[in-house]
Specification:
Helix content: 40-55%
Largest sheet: 2 strands, antiparallel
Strand order of the largest sheet: 1-2
Oligomer: single chain
Mean pLDDT: 85
Low-confidence stretches: 16-24
Domain DUF3597: 3-120
Region (Disordered): 15-39
Shape: globular
Protein name: DUF3597 domain-containing protein
Pfam families: DUF3597
Number of strands: 4
Number of helices: 5
Length: 125
């Protein structure tokens, strides 16, 4: 599992599987009814409120620090993990500088927004 997937799962939960609905729909063959499978829509998650409500959020600077964001979510935040995450997010030359970490934090927030999260504009590019 990718590191970004771990971040998404920690915030959004596991992907909702399509569930079988309790009703049936005629199959058109007259004698058999086929179950109707409907994907359940994923609710929009307010990322800021969700992260603020997590235990330990008040002692971490998750709003600007990728290290603190990863710590809050229980994901390894060492250099190697951040480098792997940066590569996933499209940056091969990640060196762990402050500029790199700011870029990585913004990319993660943009990724969360692209996956249906409600993310404040100040966290985005």
């Amino acid at each position: 599992m990718s590191i970004f997937s771990k971040i998404k799962d920690a915030i959004f939960g596991k992907k909702a599987e399509a569930r079988e609905a309790p009703r049936t729909q005629p199959s058109g063959h007259g004698t058999t009814d086929a179950p109707v499978i409907e994907a359940q829509p994923r609710p929009v998650i307010d990322v800021e409120n969700h992260l603020d409500s997590m235990p330990g959020a008040d002692s971490l600077n998750w709003r600007t620090s990728i290290v603190d964001l990863m710590k809050l979510l229980g994901i390894d935040s060492d250099y190697e993990a951040r480098k792997a995450l940066a590569i996933e997010m499209g940056r091969e030359d990640y060196a762990g500088t402050a500029e790199d970490n700011i870029w990585l934090h913004r990319r993660v927030m943009n990724g969360l927004a692209a996956n249906g999260g409600k993310v404040p504009a100040e966290f985005l590019d």
